[in-house]
Specification:
Layout: H1 4-10, H2 17-23, H3 27-32, H4 41-62, H5 67-78, H6 80-89, H7 107-129, H8 131-141, H9 146-151, H10 158-169, E1 175-182, E2 189-196, E3 199-206, H11 209-224
Antiparallel strand pairs: 1-2, 2-3
Helix pairs in contact: 2-7, 4-5, 4-7, 4-8, 6-7, 7-8, 10-11
């Protein structure tokens, strides 16, 4: 696998290219390639920790927000959807080593593979070139999305906010019901409604029940605040 193009794209030339190759090796690949003995899960474990430290430090040093806001902002930055999109923009898919079955995965399954690969790449950079190199990579490719998250308030936990408001105003906890679940298991689309009592306040869609619930709660909040 030729990785020089990818190294040039991310601006990091590895001293030990095997680390990068391992970071791009999904566990499914080992089932069809018995000569390969290591997948990216250990590097993902390390990269996840490095990612959290770097993002936490950046938020702490650059924003005066209270602890609750910083926690939500960090979650918005490092969640699967965000880092899988970054991974896709970097062209990671082209270099992933997957089994033939996984190479055709879509939806949430592919999101997780891409997100895990991003974390594994962070771990590989940390081992190969140290914390500062990992920090630059994370800052240049992930933390640049912070302004958008702040501007669009993507860090707000709509479910928690809607629940607090409903309990305060009506004394009732909202409940969620799945309206439909369409598509194959690897590419489901859920439609969920949120209700206070019998009244439906919002409907949302997402690749998981949780994402659809957040979407429904966000729409409910818009109506509830009018």
């Amino acid at each position: 696998m030729e990785l020089k193009d990818f190294e040039q794209k991310i601006g990091i030339m590895f001293k030990n290219e095997e680390l990068l190759k391992t970071a791009l090796t999904h566990r499914s690949y080992l089932n069809e390639n018995k000569n390969i003995t290591e997948n990216n899960e250990r590097l993902e474990f390390l990269g996840d920790a490095v990612l959290e430290v770097v993002v936490t430090e950046h938020l702490f040093n650059n924003l005066p927000n209270p602890e609750g806001d910083l926690t939500n902002l960090r979650s918005a930055l490092v969640k699967t959807e965000t880092i899988s999109n970054v991974s896709k923009e970097l062209g990671v898919e082209k270099y992933l080593l997957l089994s033939k079955g996984e190479s055709h995965s879509f939806g949430r399954s592919r999101q997780l593979i891409l997100a895990n690969a991003f974390e594994a790449i962070v771990g590989a950079i940390y081992l190969d070139q140290g914390l500062e190199a990992a920090r630059r990579f994370i800052t240049d490719n992930l933390i640049v999305y912070l302004d958008k998250i702040l501007e669009e308030k993507l860090y707000i936990d709509s479910k928690s906010e809607f629940q607090e408001m409903a309990q305060e105003k009506d004394g009732i906890t909202p409940h969620y019901e799945v309206i439909s679940a369409e598509g194959p298991d690897h590419n489901k689309k859920f439609t969920v409604g949120v209700y206070i009592g019998e009244k439906k306040w919002g409907v949302g869609e997402g690749a998981s029940k949780q994402a659809a619930q957040q979407s429904a709660a966000a729409k409910a909040l818009e109506k509830y605040l009018k």
